[in-house]
Amino acid sequence: SWERYLERRSVVLQFLHSSLSLHHLQHHQNKAELLKKCYFYLEIEPKHVNVRDQNHVMHRTDILQLIDTYQFQRMKKVGKTQTEIQLSLLTELLEQLERGREELSCYVETSDMITFLSQWDLIMQRLSKLSEFMETLLSLQVPGKLYVKHCLVSHADLRSTRLPNIRLSLCTKIPLIFDREESFARKDWAKLRWFTENQEPHLEQYELHVKLLTNGSQTEVGYGRTQAVTSNTCVVQDLHPGRSYEFTIRRSHTDTLVCERWYDSITLRTKTNAVEDTDGSACT
Fold first, then answer.
1. Tens digit of pLDDT for each residue in 47-104?
2. Facing residues of 264 across strands?
3. pTM value?
């Protein structure tokens, strides 16, 4: 019995030190938190198709020009719902895995040999269920495909062109996060820099929102504006000295955007005089 106890206890410890280790769970927690901040898009394959015109000449056409608007909006709603369910399930699964780790640790640390062996069937059921949770968690960390129930393209637009099978799936882009070391304000201007993906297209559109903070003053009217940007830096001119501004960065909306739940903001205070202008400015 002692050997059996040590052997079975070792199985549980191995699981706790591998799949359910604190480091492993924290890694998945970080991935889930990042995913919650991502932008979700509909990805359509193929992106282009060859279509005949009235003169039977073939033209390469963007698939979005052929897809029925109503059906496309409907699929975007389906994609948003699927995304929200996916993110909710990720949170729930992580909570289940953390609770499972606590339960198994309790079995190992507090149970004597007889109690541990008598509860082995229950422990094995828990191990099996937690393994299933982990597999599901891993599958949910990658956005999935969308099932297309209705025809997305009107055959009247095709003029007898044979249309390839249209596949829809969800894809993500990472959130934009300000570089707080490289973002600063001077007397009447500020420079903002944010992190983007390494493979990001050069002409990716971003929106930088600028808002003057009024500290709740009843006599001062709030002020704000938006600048379109195509790089990861932007200089904002014509700011008032000695004032706090909130800057928010987000990706520009596109036809395929399904869901955005988070965007980064930073508060910078402009300087009041030229001497102060040589120093950095506080940011949050």
1. 888 877 777 777 788 888 888 888 889 989 999 999 999 999 999 999 999 999 999 9
2. 249
3. 0.83
Same domain (yes/no): 134, 247: no
**Block residue for tokens 């055959």:** 155
Q: Which of 146, 171, 196 is the last residue of a domain?
A: 171
Task: Give the single-character DSSP code of 252.
Answer: P
Enter the tokens of residue 120. 């082995």
Q: Say whether 33 sits in a helix, a strand or coil.
A: helix
Are 9 and 134 within one domain? yes
Q: What is the distance between the alpha carbons of residues 264 and 262, in angstroms, rounded to a whole number? A: 7
| Host domain of residue 99 | 2-171
In whole angstroms, give the CA distance from residue 272 to residue 190. 13
- How many Å is the Cα radius of gyration of the chain? 27
CA dist., res. 253 & res. 256, Å (int):
8
Q: What letter would DSSP give residue 19?
A: T
Do residues 146 and 82 lie in contact, with contact meaning Cβ atoms separated by under 8 Å?
yes
CA distance 284 to 282: 7
DSSP, res 156: G
In a domain, 109, yes or no: yes
Does residue 159 contact residue 44 with C-beta atoms inside 8 Å?
no
